[in-house]
Each structure stands twice: as structure tokens, then as C-alpha cells.
Amino acid sequence: MSELMWERGYADTSPREVRQRSGVGQGSMYHHFPTKRDLALAALERNIPDLLPAASELDDPGDPMARIEAYLMRPRDPLKGCKVGRMTQDPQVREDPVLLAPVARAFTQVHASWVRVLREAVAARQLRDDLDPERLAHTLMAVLQGGYVLAIAQQDPGPFNNAVASALDLLRAAAPAAPDHKDKKRNRTA
């Protein structure tokens, strides 16, 4: 179910297809998952850990900007999209608070990781202190999710790759200006 939901979405996946792909008998499947919704909820809970470990890299120790760059540039398959983000496009998931809850929870956790690493980058003077880490975290998440949408729509990973590279360019441009040589000399003589 996890793979089929990623490929087709919840609405377009049937329990029969899940049984065929998994090789599990009907009785066994319905014993553990009495409804399609139960099966989907279990699949969502399984897909979320695929998103969260990568985002937890943002919480690792070390240079904050290096962690941000590594996270943004890590290998992904843009044409498949995000296993979790894709579920927000499925009307049956969007309209079911029980199915939407793990998706929202996952994005909340990823947002918190982004905010922490961005605050670290500001504290390390790698980003300007007038930037709002909360808003910037939403922007970076939107760049990734929007990049997936554009790549899928065009059946080309280029838009995703360009979006990520541009996000890095913008972050680098948001670094505090280094004092020029004259300012350093003035500070030493003062």
C-alpha cells in the first residue's frame, strides 16, 4: 500500500491491487487491516519515517550551513515526488482528518528541524540576523515540495534541481556582509 499510494495516490489504489503486489491473501490482509482506510493509515505511518530521517540530518551536529546544503543536495527522485507531500494532493486524504493527521505531523516535525538549523546558522553568523527562521523554513519546504510538483508536471527533474540550487544561491546571498579591509583596519586602530 505504501508504494501504491506513492505511485497512484489513495483514491486510485484498491485493496485488491495491494494484495496482488504484496502476495498476501485476502483473509490475512483484512485480519490486520479491516478497511482500506486502516491500510492507508498504516502505509502513511510507514512513509513518514522515510521523510523524517533525512530531515533529522538537519539536527546533526556540525556546521549549520553545511548541513543545510547536504540536506538540500541529497539524492532524490524528483519525478516520483515526496511520499508524504504527495498525499496532500489526494482529495480523499485531504478530506479525512485521520489520514491527514500523520501528514501534517510529519511536516510540523520537518519544519521544526529547519527552524533549529536556520537559527543555528544565524547564531553562527552564516545567515543575517534579520532573517526570520520560521518563515524561511516554510519557504525552503515550499521550494522542495514545489520543485517536486514542477518536475512531475514537466516529467523532467530539471525544475526540481534548479529550485534547490536557487534556494542555496539565495541562502548564500543571505550571509552577512564581511567587513571590508578598511573597516578591519579602523577597528584595530580604534
TrEMBL record:
Ranges for region Disordered: 1-30
Segments traversing the membrane: none
Gene3D superfamilies given in the database record: Tetracycline Repressor, domain 2 (1.10.357.10)
Compositionally biased intervals (Basic and acidic residues): 1-20
Pfam families for this protein: TetR_C_13, TetR_N
PROSITE patterns: HTH_TETR_2
SUPFAM superfamilies found in the cross-reference section: Homeodomain-like, Tetracyclin repressor-like, C-terminal domain
Coiled coil (residue ranges): none
DNA-binding feature ranges: 14-33
Keywords, alphabetical: DNA-binding, Transcription, Transcription regulation
InterPro entries linked: Homeodomain-like_sf, HTH_TetR, Tet_transcr_reg_TetR-rel_C_sf, TetR_C
Cell membrane found in the keyword field: no
Domain HTH tetR-type positions: 1-51
Protein's UniProt keywords contain GTP-binding: no
Name assigned to this protein: TetR/AcrR family transcriptional regulator
Organism: Micromonospora azadirachtae
